[in-house]
Amino acid sequence: MNIPSSETLTPAPRTSDPEQLATEILERLKYRIGKDPKVAKPHDWLTAAILVARDRVTDNWMDSTKRTYAEGRKRVYYLSLEFLIGRLMRDTMTNIGIMDSMRIALASLGVDIDVIAELEPDAALGNGGLGRLAACFMESMATVDVPAYGYGIRYVHGLFRQQMSDGWQVELPENWLAHGNPWEFERRESSYEIGFGGSVDTVDVGDEAIRYVWKPAERVIATAYDTPVAGWRGQRVNTLRLWTAAPIDPILLDAFNAGDHIGALRESNKAESLARVLYPADATPAGQELRLRQEFFFSSASLQDILRRHLQQFPDFTSLPDAVAIQLNDTHPAVAVAELIRLLMDVHGLDIEQAWSIARATFSYTNHTLLPEALESWPVPLFERLLPRHMQIVYAINAMILMEARRQKTHTDQQIRSISLIDEGGERRVRMGNLAFVGSHSINGVSALHTELMKETVFADLHRLYPDRINNKTNGITPRRWLMQCNPGLLSLIREAIGDKFMDDTEALKDLETFATDSSFQEKFAAVKRQNKVRLAKLVRERMGVRIDPSSMFDIQTKRIHEYKRQLLNIIEAISLYDQMRSRPELDWVPRVKVFSGKAAPSYHNAKLIIKLANDVARVINNDPAVRGLLKVVFVPNYNVSLAEVIIPAADLSEQISTAGMEASGTGNMKFGLNGALTIGTLDGANVEMRDHVGADNIMIFGMTAEEVAKVRADTYNPRAIIEGSKELQQALSAIASGVFSPGDTGRFADLVDGLYSHDWFMVAADFDAYAKAQREVDALWTDQPAWYNKTILNTARMGWFSSDRTIRQYAREIWRA
Questions:
Q1: Are the C-beta atoms of residues 342 and 356 closer than 8 Å to each other?
Q2: 479-705+766-802, what's its fold?
Q3: Contact (CB, 8 A) for 207 and 187
Q4: Catalytic residue flag (residue 332)
Q5: Which of 28, 87, 533, 560 is catalytic?
Q6: Is residue 566 annotated as part of the catalytic site, yes or no?
Q7: For 164-217, how does the pLDDT look when each residue is reduced to its tens digit (9 = 90+)?
Q8: Which of 540, 591, 631, 718 has its CA 20 to 30 A from that of 45?
Q9: Is 35 a catalytic residue?
């Protein structure tokens, strides 16, 4: 009997003929879903179509893996607590080139692909920019042919689903996995034990050497689920490997039989909580412990998987840095530094000098924040109780680093204390940012400004010790999702104007510059924008019952709700504009719709209060006939990737107004600019480089620079004097404080207003007048539509540099050596 090989089982290549696709859809419907077409529901057709697409991706996936082995390619492992991948159907079908054929195939079966595509749930695997960046990077690594795995957690609920109750944010579970995930493959063979707690013993191994043995008190099993990630044109498919957790013993049968039904499942519930929710609230000790458990859980599983794969190809770990590059996306996986050293020493027998040398040559670290409170740290008692062996390793690393600093004689005692992995000020804490820094050969910022500020602020003393490690890799976005898929009208217009070269080389969008003053092209560009605005207006009407006019300027701020991102500044300016419109009705006001969207961390009181204020202001303004519909304010709940794909193409004005020096980069600014929105913003994060690329005349910059913010903070800043000297600002704050927008609870926003008067750390008052002036300049520009579209077309034409393909090529060449 001849047994067929895997090659003979795989059609090569599978056809994209619509008739063949339709046949395969019916086969999947019958044999995988168990449905006859006559009774199949839309979600059945969705799953069948995904399975057909997945088969084609899988062919390329296996070919990519074989090619990586055959060519001896270096692999990149991207460790991230978030991967905000969004819906995958359109993304994958477009990248492998079957989207049009699939549309025809489904239509022949009486199915509208646009209808079923809306049923695909957003994968709730991220929070905001950090997670979306990781998703863009995964797609770009496949596109530019970098062999890669992304490692994270397969959250059952992920980040919460946001609803509004009387204008307040309400957090509900996001049940995106309730009906399974047809894209993924369970890998039961890729399972690893993860330990917590317990004790550390020593074993004499001869020659006066000892080996440390960690004996965890708790153990769970990490099991992998793989999702293929196809690059553009489908030439390479990489792997997103997510871990789920299960107990060693799912049920304590003796306890169950004794009637303790809850106690019998205690271990199961404890294990499964590791993969239940993204960012559990850490305001309590229990929340902090769960966060640290999650971070160690996925870091340890990922490293065990990496080392297992390495030993399948190489005899030992001396070659690990040549074969493997591990990128730490922020401080969440920083514990991986200590875990890799533990595995190399305690499991594989290397000494600490060898393990430390290998680890530093293998790891690199991306920093995403200059906020000291966002650079994670853990109480030493918690860390030591949960990870006793790792605490020993952290102390050992710390001793090496501090002695090195002492030998150089270039650091004061205070500077050495800031380098230390242990913060001795008050409660002793393990500094994860410092651990990631010293354990990596490369530390990168994510915009030019952010990188320079890293050297001057949070890592100033470590930079002095290791002056060659910090480098810049400005963030980027994948143009496939953020132009080609989310804005098909603009895609068609650009292709008609300049051809298809930009689809493979985004910087070829520069060819569009010659059309910026072409009146015919401007009209077509404006028509595409209006079509996108009509779509957003329809969504707002259906979800919120608010009518917005697509002829108005759509002024949009969508991002995580945080005080440094200054949604509050935007809301206060809306109130000021509202007051002016009522008091000066004879003026020719520009119709404007202010759109907000974003989630606040459940324990972040002020951020949630800002959401409530936005909704309260919207209720008053939208129902006041005195403004004649010239101003509308809407807060669209549950911001996610799919909602962003509707909002971003509809934006006329993009709000990027963070306090200068506090936004690491931003990627929303790039997405809006690519889709033809004018940016109003501070010189913060990647806005600086956007100004350089699109031209200072084509971006509305206002407010203090990072240097000026630092100087004002260092001097005696008196926000009260500034507020009292600004008529419009004082009037708007008075309206908020007096209860104009909260008549049932006049003191609701007292703390927000008092904070601006007393300290105003985020410089809302300091930048208000400049912001309001810039907004009136935006109004003036809007009245000259040819000038407006000249600038917005140039924004689209000059955003090609901000492709994540460029960013990944820089990582591969300068950090990973891949």
A1: no
A2: Rossmann fold (3.40.50)
A3: no
A4: no
A5: 560
A6: no
A7: 999 999 999 999 999 999 999 999 999 999 999 999 999 887 777 788 999 999
A8: 540
A9: no
What span, in angstroms and rounded, lies between the C-alpha atoms of 97 and 674? Answer: 23
Residue 347 three-state SS: helix
Q: Which long-range contacts (CB under 8 A, 24 or more apart) does 20-23 make?
A: 21/52, 21/98, 21/101, 21/102, 21/105, 22/105, 22/106, 22/108, 22/109
Taking the C-alpha atoms of residue 566 and residue 483, their distance in angstroms, rounded to an integer, is 27
DSSP structural state of residue 566: T
> Could you say which of 239, 244, 667, 807 is catalytic?
667
SS (H, E, C) 5-73: CHHHHCCCCCCCCHHHHHHHHHHHHHHCCCCCCCCCCHHHHHHHHHHHHHHHHHHHHHHHHHHHHHHCC
User: Would you say 91 and 142 are in contact if contact means Cβ atoms under 8 Å apart?
Assistant: no
The distance of Cα 413 from the centroid of its chain, to the nearest Å, equals 38
- The string of pLDDT tens digits covering residues 19-50 is 999 999 999 999 999 999 999 999 999 999 99
- 437, 458 contact by CB (below 8 A): no
Q: How far is CA 566 from the centre of its chain?
A: 19
Q: Tell me how far apart the alpha carbons of residues 76 and 53 are, in angstroms, rounded to a whole number.
A: 26
CA angle, 232 as apex, 108 and 442 as ends, to 5°? 150
DSSP 425: S
Mean pLDDT of 269-273: 84
Instruction: Name the region of 416 (left: φ>0; alpha: ψ -120 to 50; beta: rest).
Output: alpha
pLDDT > 90 fraction of the chain, expressed in percent and rounded: 91
Q: How far is CA 67 from the centre of its chain?
A: 30
Residue 742 one-letter amino acid: S
The active-site residue out of 429, 671, 691, 806 is 671
CATH pick for 18-474+810-816 out of 3.20.20.300, 3.10.520.10, 2.60.40.1180, 3.40.50.2000: 3.40.50.2000
* Catalytic annotation present for 671: yes
Q: How far apart are CA 250 and CA 809, in angstroms?
A: 45
Element at 814 (helix H, strand E):
none
Letter for the amino acid at 807?
T
**DSSP letter at 587?**
S
Q: What is the mean pLDDT of the chain?
A: 95
Residue 667 appears among annotated catalytic residues = yes
- Per residue in 346-400, pLDDT (tens digit) is 999 999 999 999 999 999 999 999 887 778 999 999 999 999 999 999 999 999 9
CB 160 within 8 A of CB 604: no
Please write the tens of the pLDDT for every residue from 344-353: 999 999 999 9
* Active-site residue flag, 559: yes
CA distance 623 to 644: 27
**What value does the mean pLDDT take over residues 117-145?**
95
User: Which of 463, 559, 592, 798 is flagged as catalytic?
Assistant: 559
3-class SS of residue 333: coil
CB 160 within 8 A of CB 172: yes
Strand stretches in 66-119, DSSP E: 75-79
Q: Which residue of the set 14, 103, 368, 612 is catalytic?
A: 368
381's CB contacts (< 8 A; 6+ apart) are: none
> Which of the residues 411, 463, 565, 612 is marked catalytic?
565
